[in-house]
C-alpha cells in the first residue's frame, strides 16, 4: 500500500507539473522566449550593438524568501531546503533563497497581507485559507472526505475550474507558485481517548482559523477553537484545549505527543497545500526566473511527497514509544465520523459563496 501511495503521488504530480504557473493571458508568465507583459522581447528595430557598445548592466540578484510554520526536520522543511537548492542551482546563482521555518516571519495572515502589498515572500497554506482572498470556492480543495486518494487531488489540478481559481487569486494580488504538495492526512490527537464519535462531544479541539474546518468539528460534536500552531503545545499542556488535528508529520514535529497521548485515525482530510506569493513581485521577475521558481517548486513538491510517505511510519512508532496510543475506529464508527463531517456540504456558512452543485461537480471531475 505504501509503495502504491507513493507511486500515485509521483506519477500524478509529474502529470500536472507547472500547472500553478498557468494563468489567464493577462497574468500568466510567458514560458517561451517570446515577448511577455513583464519582460518584452527586443524589437527588431532596435539598433544593433557595435563593438564599442557598453555592455548592459547585469540584472539585480533576486532574493527569494520562503516562510512556513513547520519546524526544521519535518518533511515540509526538508522539501523547502531542496527547493532552495534547486532554485540556486538552476538559476546559476542569480537567485538566492532565504528560509524562515517555525513562523519566524510572523503569522500567515500577516504574511498574506504583506504579499498583497507587493512583498516578495513565498508562504505555504491550503485552499480553506486562500478562500478568504478572492477565490471563495478554493475552500473545497481542503474539505473533509473530498478525495478518496491523492491521485484525485492531482487530477483536480488539471481542470479548468482549478485554472479559474489561480486567475481569481492573481486578480487579488496573490500568485500560486506550486500546488502539487501533499501536506498529509489530518488525524485527531487528544488528551482523552476518542474511540467513538460520541467521545468528541464537548471536547475543545484546536483548528486552523477557517470556517471549513471549524464547522466540520462542530458537525462532529466538538467545540473548535482557532489558534496559531505555535500556541497549541502550551494550550494543551495547560488544559486550555483537549486536543488538535493535523497530519502525523506536524503532530510529531511539534512534539504534541509530550502533552497529548491519544491519536484517533479518522483520516478526515487529505490536505494538499499550495505555496503563494505576491502577484506584483512574481510579475517583476523575468520569464526565466518565473519558470525556474515554478518548475523547481513542483520538483520540490515531489520530494516532499516522497518524504511524507517515507517518514510517517517512523513518526507513529516514535510517538507510540513515548506513550501515545493510536486508536483505529472500525469501519462502522469511521462511517459515523464521515457522515457527520459531510454535513458541512449543506452548511450555509461553508457554501454561501460556492456555485450551485460545486461538491457534486468536483466529485464527478475527479472520479
Order of helices and strands: HEHEHEHHHEEHEHEHEHHEHHH
Q: Report the sheet-strand fraction.
A: 15-25%
Low-pLDDT ranges = 1-20, 22-58
Radius of gyration: 22 Å
The tally of structural domains comes to 1
What is the terminal separation in angstroms? 20 Å
- CATH topology, by name, is D-Maltodextrin-Binding Protein, domain 2
Structural class of the helix and strand makeup? Answer: alpha/beta
What is the CATH class designation?
A: Alpha Beta
Number of strands: 9
> Count of helical segments?
14
Task: Report the CATH architecture.
Answer: 3-Layer(aba) Sandwich
What is the topology?
Elements: H1 2-15, E1 62-67, H2 75-90, E2 95-100, H3 108-116, E3 121-125, H4 127-130, H5 150-156, H6 160-171, E4 174-190, E5 204-207, H7 211-219, E6 223-226, H8 232-237, E7 243-246, H9 248-253, E8 262-278, H10 279-284, H11 287-321, E9 325-327, H12 331-341, H13 348-351, H14 358-366
Parallel strand pairs: 1-2, 1-3, 5-6, 5-7, 8-9
Antiparallel strand pairs: 3-8, 4-7, 4-8
Helix pairs in contact: 1-5, 1-11, 2-11
Amino acid at each position: 500500500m505504501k509503495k502504491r501511495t507513493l507511486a500515485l503521488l509521483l506519477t500524478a504530480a509529474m502529470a500536472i507539473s507547472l500547472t500553478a504557473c498557468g494563468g489567464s493571458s493577462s497574468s500568466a508568465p510567458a514560458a517561451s522566449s517570446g515577448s511577455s507583459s513583464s519582460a518584452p522581447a527586443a524589437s527588431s528595430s532596435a539598433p544593433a550593438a557595435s563593438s564599442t557598445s557598453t555592455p548592459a548592466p547585469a540584472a539585480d540578484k533576486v532574493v527569494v524568501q520562503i516562510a512556513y510554520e513547520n519546524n526544521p526536520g519535518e518533511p515540509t522543511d526538508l522539501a523547502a531546503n531542496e527547493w532552495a537548492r534547486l532554485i540556486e542551482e538552476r538559476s546559476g546563482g542569480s537567485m538566492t533563497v532565504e528560509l524562515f521555518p517555525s513562523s519566524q516571519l510572523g503569522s500567515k495572515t500577516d504574511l498574506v497581507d504583506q504579499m498583497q502589498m507587493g512583498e516578495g515572500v513565498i508562504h505555504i497554506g491550503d485552499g480553506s485559507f486562500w478562500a478568504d482572498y478572492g477565490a471563495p470556492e478554493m475552500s473545497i480543495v481542503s474539505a473533509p472526505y473530498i478525495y478518496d486518494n491523492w491521485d484525485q487531488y492531482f487530477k483536480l489540478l488539471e481542470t479548468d475550474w482549478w485554472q479559474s481559481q489561480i486567475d481569481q487569486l492573481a486578480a487579488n494580488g496573490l500568485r500560486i507558485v506550486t500546488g502539487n504538495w501533499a501536506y498529509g492526512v489530518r488525524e485527531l490527537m487528544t488528551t482523552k481517548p476518542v474511540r467513538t464519535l460520541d467521545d468528541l462531544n464537548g471536547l475543545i479541539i484546536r483548528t486552523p482559523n477557517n470556517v471549513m474546518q471549524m464547522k466540520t468539528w462542530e458537525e462532529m460534536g466538538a467545540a473548535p477553537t482557532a489558534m496559531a500552531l505555535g500556541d497549541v503545545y502550551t494550550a494543551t499542556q495547560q488544559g486550555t484545549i483537549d486536543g488538535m488535528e493535523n497530519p502525523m508529520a506536524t503532530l510529531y514535529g511539534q512534539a504534541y505527543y509530550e502533552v497529548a497521548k491519544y491519536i484517533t485515525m479518522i483520516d478526515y482530510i487529505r490536505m494538499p497545500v499550495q505555496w503563494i506569493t505576491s502577484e506584483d513581485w512574481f510579475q517583476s521577475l523575468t520569464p526565466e526566473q518565473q519558470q525556474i521558481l515554478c518548475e523547481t517548486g513542483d520538483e520540490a513538491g515531489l520530494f516532499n511527497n516522497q518524504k511524507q510517505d517515507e517518514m510517517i511510519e517512523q513518526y507513529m512508532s516514535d510517538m507510540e514509544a513515548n506513550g501515545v496510543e493510536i486508536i483505529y475506529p472500525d469501519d462502522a464508527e469511521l462511517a459515523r465520523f464521515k457522515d457527520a463531517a459531510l454535513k458541512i456540504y449543506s452548511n450555509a456558512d461553508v457554501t454561501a459563496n460556492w456555485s450551485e452543485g460545486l461538491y457534486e461537480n468536483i466529485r464527478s471531475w475527479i472520479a
